[in-house]
Amino acid sequence: MLGAFGRAFKTPDLRRKLLFTVGIIVIYRIGVFIPAPGISYGNVQQCLALGNTTGGVYDMVNLFSGGALLQLSIFALGVMPYITASIIVQLLRVVIPRFQELHEEGAQGQTKLTQYTRYLTILLALLNSTTIISLARSGTLLGNCPLPIIPDDSFINILLIVITLTAGTGVIMWLGEQITEKGVGNGMSLLIFTSIAASFPTAMGNIATANGWGIFAAVCAVGLLVIIAVVFVEQSQRRIPVQYAKRMIGRRTIGGTSTYIPLKVNMAGVIPLIFASSLLMIPGLLAQFNTPSDGTPPPAWVSWINDYLVKGDHPLYIALYFLLILGFAYFYVSITFNTEEVAGNMKKYGGFIPGVRAGKPTERYLTYVLNRITLPGALYLAVIAMIPLVALILFNANQNFPFGGASLLIVVGVGLDTVKQIDAQLQQRNYEGLLR
């Protein structure tokens, strides 16, 4: 394996791409620690030292930003606005026929959809930054910290902070696109990978400090087993055989080949986890906005939300999270894999599944197989998502527990995809890949 990495750096073109990717990642990580203008960095650090932060409302956003959110840095919003915009544009294909037409137009249509995603990203970043600054001004972002996070709360200063955070999201989006075009791997995925991986040492150090080295070793062993299981499931797929009939075009015979449709066990990826977490985040966000900052008791409904839907260790929260993941997994797979479209394309080009008639019978067969394979995939996602909640109950670890949830799925998935891309480029040049 070390020799394979050596060959990667000996290839000039691939070495240039790898160094460019690393350089962009370094720039991104530097931006995480640059405080936004108008923010009292010292007060932020003192509030974080108190340890009384949001308690789960913005944990996923903070995780995906590499800790930049609670630092209120120029990259505080991270990649979440872009992720949300991408998901919205993808879902709008079902609602807006024009979006579906652009999706089917090929590269030109995809370019147009990408431009729409950029516009929506900036709009969402503007809304998110306004919300975060409102929480910071009231003190609820960092757990009702008495120290002023924004000493000067004049309109001009607040506007400057909002513009800075929005511009930071635009820069992150540009950095990700540069990696995709000139580097190795998917740029935005690698930035998320970097943000999550950067939180692993701190999370593991906290576990060792709070619970001792015995628990630390046990967590590492369990984490290794979970990683192996995630790799196995992420690589698993159901291959549906497809044959193409021979056709005569002029004097040439076309077709007659055999292939397959790969249906992954986890076709939805981490999207159901993001959907479920975002939906469960809304009650906590509403409770924060309605929590008095002067120390008076909050309303009864705010106390109920804080007790049952914020901390993440209540059975009601766990049950809702589990069921939402199952529901969103089926919902997202049904949108992204259109069995009617796949069956229509197969019939158009003379393809058929052995033993199944073309057209509607093929569509029904694909739907049947897809529904059956989505169930274990959804249960797998739900079980992985429960690991941080179990860690929260057993070890008093926070929601950013490294070996579970969206963090582990993203790290393993992006790592596998990037290694495969490097391997493919090595095989193009040396006929010997990174993987054996």
UniProtKB/TrEMBL annotation:
Record's keyword terms, sorted: Cell membrane, Membrane, Protein transport, Translocation, Transmembrane, Transmembrane helix, Transport
Compartment list: Cell membrane; Membrane
Transmembrane segments: 18-36, 68-95, 116-135, 155-176, 188-207, 213-233, 316-337, 373-395
One CC-aspect GO term: plasma membrane
Chief place of localization: membrane
Gene Ontology biological-process annotations: intracellular protein transmembrane transport; protein targeting; protein transport by the Sec complex
PROSITE patterns associated with the record: SECY_1, SECY_2
Membrane topology according to the record: Multi-pass membrane protein
UniProt family annotation: Belongs to the SecY/SEC61-alpha family.
Role, per record: The central subunit of the protein translocation channel SecYEG. Consists of two halves formed by TMs 1-5 and 6-10. These two domains form a lateral gate at the front which open onto the bilayer between TMs 2 and 7, and are clamped together by SecE at the back. The channel is closed by both a pore ring composed of hydrophobic SecY resides and a short helix (helix 2A) on the extracellular side of the membrane which forms a plug. The plug probably moves laterally to allow the channel to open. The ring and the pore may move independently.
Quaternary structure, from the entry: Component of the Sec protein translocase complex. Heterotrimer consisting of SecY, SecE and SecG subunits. The heterotrimers can form oligomers, although 1 heterotrimer is thought to be able to translocate proteins. Interacts with the ribosome. Interacts with SecDF, and other proteins may be involved. Interacts with SecA.
Protein name in UniProt: Protein translocase subunit SecY
Native source organism of the sequence: Rothia amarae
Gene transcribed to yield this protein: secY
